[in-house]
Amino acid sequence: MDISVVIPLFNEDESLPELTAWIDKVMVENNFSYEIVLVDDGSTDRSWEVIEALRIQNPAIKGIKFRRNYGKSAALNVGFEATQGDVVITMDADLQDSPDEIPELYRRIKEEKLDLISGWKKKRYDPITKTVPTKLFNAATRKMSGIELNDFNCGLKAYRSDVVKTIEVYGEMHRYIPVIAKWAGFNKISEQVVEHRARKYGTTKFGFSRFINGFLDLLSIFFVGKFGKRPMHFFGSLGVLSFFLGIIMSLYVLVEKQILIWKGLAYRDVTQQPLFYLSLVAIVVGSQMFLAGFIAELLSRNAPERNQYLIEKELK
Q1: Which residue blocks in the chain are alpha helix, DSSP H?
Q2: Which of 112-121, 156-165, 192-201, 268-277 is least confident?
């Protein structure tokens, strides 16, 4: 099969018939063999009834329904597991992503041997409350990941099948799939300017909580990707640094007092100096961080996936 289109959705019953008909038209015109995987993320409207009706009309349509709303990342992860196509395309169900982009995305994945292509909605029709946080996140993600993309969170993306079968998307990590793919060893990541259409049906699901959650998810990805298999390098280094900094400060306070006594000058007791208490805090925090790293290292070494590595090719 050439292409699998994965569409996570939540309360999008109005847009589904038009979207699936549009995708079918593009696929037929380009002679692609395809499937459409619709993942209903616990919709409370008629979305599932619409999916069942569409399935009868078009056998290429597959449906997966969650019992409740788990989020876009969970929907994508389950959709990825169900795909069979050589190239996997993801898009939103609100008709803001154009299926007309699919042939070019497919061509580039195949001809340029790319692992992932992320869409870039250069001209957007979203409110400023969504576009400003998006620009901030894109800038922060570029800086932390080293991946030069302008729009990490664009729903329209194309993947080589190996990518979606390897990575795991959870929580709200869908915003940073290119980063997850890079940490998994898929470095051939590119970008393509795509059309962003004004929303035709329903309302946006974007909320302020995503701004905070997105930042925390970015930190999680950065930490797990860099120190997931060697947590002692992170916690241990900071712990040792804090511990010795505390020791140096406490020695300074003690030596200073002895020098003042030797010179016959007025001095304060050690317990009356704020620096002494700061040094104690640094020593305690350093010890705790070192122990945290030691425990995390033990857990990491006993984890079943501790020696699981991604092998691209093998000759026997």
Answers
A1: 16-29, 47-57, 72-82, 102-111, 128-145, 161-166, 177-183, 209-227, 231-263, 274-302
A2: 192-201
38-42, 50-54, 289-293: the lowest-pLDDT one: 289-293
Do residues 35 and 64 make contact, with C-beta atoms less than 8 angstroms apart? no
Look-up of token digits 């008629």: 46
Closest CA to 176 of 213, 130, 126, 230: 213
> Which of 226, 222, 214 has its CA nearest to residue 175?
214
The rounded distance, in Å, linking the Cα atoms of 4 and 161 is 9
Instruction: Say whether pLDDT at 208 is over 70.
Output: no
What proportion of the chain, given as a percentage, has pLDDT over 70?
82
pLDDT for 315 equals 45
Q: Is 117 helix (H, G, I), strand (E, B) or coil?
A: strand
- Burial (CB count within 10 angstroms: exposed 0-12, middle 13-18, buried 19+), residue 20: buried
Cα–Cα distance, 50 to 48 (Å, whole number): 5
DSSP characters over 179-204: HHHHHTT---EEEEE--BPPP-SS--
Q: Quickly name the fold that domain 3-227 has.
A: Spore Coat Polysaccharide Biosynthesis Protein SpsA; Chain A (3.90.550)
pLDDT in tens, 184-204: 889 999 999 998 877 666 666
Question: Is 95 exposed, middle or buried (CB count within 10 Å of its CB: 0-12, 13-18, 19+)?
Answer: buried
Contact by Cβ (8 Å): 179, 141: yes
Residue 110, classified by CB atoms within 10 Å of its CB into exposed (0-12), middle (13-18) or buried (19+), is: middle
Q: pTM for the whole thing? A: 0.73
- Check the CA dihedral 44-45-47-53 and report its sign: positive
